[in-house]
Amino acid sequence: MKGAVWLVLIACVGMLLFLILKKRLGIGWLVVFGAHMGLAAIALYVINYSGWITQVYIPINPVTMGAVTILGLPGIVLLLGLKIVLFGQAI
Asked: For 31-50, what is each residue's pLDDT tens digit?
């Protein structure tokens, strides 16, 4: 099983490198992605520790960071909605 996981990981990295080199994207997309990731972390930190929403805590982990990085502000609203609906926490 571990061999299959490593094979899939290597194949995905290979395809990603192929696409980056084929499109000649350069380093600019990494800077933009890094900026979005940093802003997502700051937004989650502000939501968790500012006291705006006191009953809901959104953990800062790769899944939540990815959702907020890709979706932006709607990603935060999505995570808050999922937390409230799935775990029954009221705001």
From this structure: 888 888 888 888 888 888 87
Contact of 63 with 75, CB cutoff 8 Å: no
CB atoms within 10 A of CB 78: 14
CA 55 to chain centre: 22
What dihedral do alpha carbons 37, 49, 80, 82 form, nearest 10°? 90
pTM of the model: 0.60
Confidence of residue 91 (pLDDT cuts 50, 70, 90): low
DSSP codes of every residue in 44-64: HHHHHHSSSSSS-----SHHH
Plot region of 78 (φ>0 → left; ψ -120 to 50 → alpha; else → beta): alpha
Q: Are 75 and 54 in contact (CB under 8 A)?
A: no
